[in-house]
Design goal:
Layout (H helix, E strand, L loop, with lengths): L2 E9 L8 E9 L11 E4 L12 E11 L7 E9 L22 E12 L32 H13 L4 E6 L5 E9 L1 H22 L1 E4 L14 E6 L1 H5 L3 H11 L3 H5 L24 E3 L6 E3 L1 H5 L6 E3 L8 H14 L7
Parallel strand pairs: 1-5, 11-12
Antiparallel strand pairs: 1-2, 3-4, 4-5, 6-8, 6-9, 6-10, 7-8, 10-13, 12-13
Helix pairs in contact: 1-2, 2-7, 4-7
């Protein structure tokens, strides 16, 4: 008999930005299969998800992977939060996704900043003042530009050991800012993997004494903010071969700016200013290879005969990937695609 450690993780009810929570359940001889996981419960009154007089909330397992810190005996279990009657809790963004056939594929580019818990500043920033201007830090190498690579590399290895589909990492434009990318065929799984990767990142930060700052504008002034660009496609985008179809789908986003911004992360007005490779928060645009647009049409898509994907550059680093995906899917499905194409 083997004692297995199951780390159930979920999103709390804090607003405007939810946080991860987790607790460990010990079971005998777990198979590693999702269908063999039980629904569990927690005290929702401690997570802004229930009142003290009726505090039980349920944890419904939706994704499981090996826990690289407990290899052989440990698993991470991503959960949806349900009410006691097993209906979706209002904080449950995953339940909003209309993609049961996994027709939508998502690739999220998760940016973040590592912060020294003692100084409260991004790693590499002097205690007084600022480092040199942006420019040398993006995709950098060297001790003066690429800071905290040891933690970043460890996080990458942990994600790969967990079986997450990480497609790359790089240092970002601001000192102390990094990025990784995760892709999945299915919106729910893409969100699951982002949340598990965030959990692993924060847990790794405990070891290094570094805070993971997901705020979209952690340093005010002439510094890039942090985003979570959402690359997405469905069968139509992957196969249509039509510029007109792509334009119709892009145009469907224009009247829905508010609906998207409402779920694209707190304080995103500080990041979406029209500067630092962003479009203004209250405007909408799309363009080929345009990183200053709301929606970028990748040059790959054009060069492959209008068969590929689109990138929504507006989601902030602190956004919930479930809610982002849900809104994008809703908008794409509303597009008036030209008939006969």
């Amino acid at each position: 008999m083997t004692k297995c450690k199951l780390e159930y993780i979920w999103l709390d009810g804090y607003k405007p930005t939810q946080s991860l929570r987790g607790k460990t359940k010990i079971v005998d001889d777990f198979s590693g299969k999702l269908e063999d996981l039980d629904i569990w419960s927690f005290d929702g009154s401690s997570t802004e998800q229930a009142e003290g007089g009726s505090s039980d909330c349920l944890l419904k397992p939706v994704y499981v992977c090996p826990d690289p810190a407990r290899l052989g005996t440990g698993y991470i279990v991503m959960c949806e939060v349900l009410n006691a009657d097993k209906t979706a809790h209002e904080s449950n963004g995953r339940d909003m996704i209309d993609d049961d056939d996994n027709d939508f594929w998502f690739g999220f580019e998760q940016e973040y900043v590592l912060e020294d818990v003692e100084t409260g500043k991004p790693v590499g920033f002097p205690i007084n003042g600022y480092p040199g201007p942006q420019g040398p830090y993006y995709c950098s190498v060297g001790a003066s530009n690429a800071i905290a690579r040891d933690m970043v590399e460890e996080h990458l290895e942990l994600c790969l050991e967990a079986g997450l589909n990480v497609e790359g990492i790089n240092a970002e434009v601001m000192m102390g800012q990094w990025e990784y990318q995760i892709f999945a065929k299915g919106a729910k799984e893409a969100g699951d993997q982002i949340w598990v990767s965030r959990y692993l990142l924060e847990r790794t930060g405990e070891k290094y004494g570094l805070k993971v700052d997901y705020h979209c504008k952690p340093v005010k002034g002439d510094w890039n903010g942090s985003g979570m660009h959402a690359n997405f496609s469905n069968t139509t985008l992957r196969t249509c071969g039509s510029k007109e179809v792509y334009e119709a789908i892009c145009q469907a986003f224009e009247p829905r700016v508010k609906e998207h911004i409402d779920v694209y992360g707190a304080d995103n007005n500080q990041r979406l200013t029209g500067l630092h490779e962003t479009q203004s928060i209250d405007e909408f645009s799309y363009g080929i290879s345009d990183r200053g647009a709301s929606i970028r049409i990748p040059i790959f898509t054009v060069e492959h005969g209008w068969k590929g994907w689109l990138e929504d550059r507006r989601p902030a680093s602190n956004a919930d990937p479930y809610k982002v995906a849900a809104q994008i899917i809703k908008t794409v499905k509303s597009a008036a695609v030209p008939s006969g194409v």
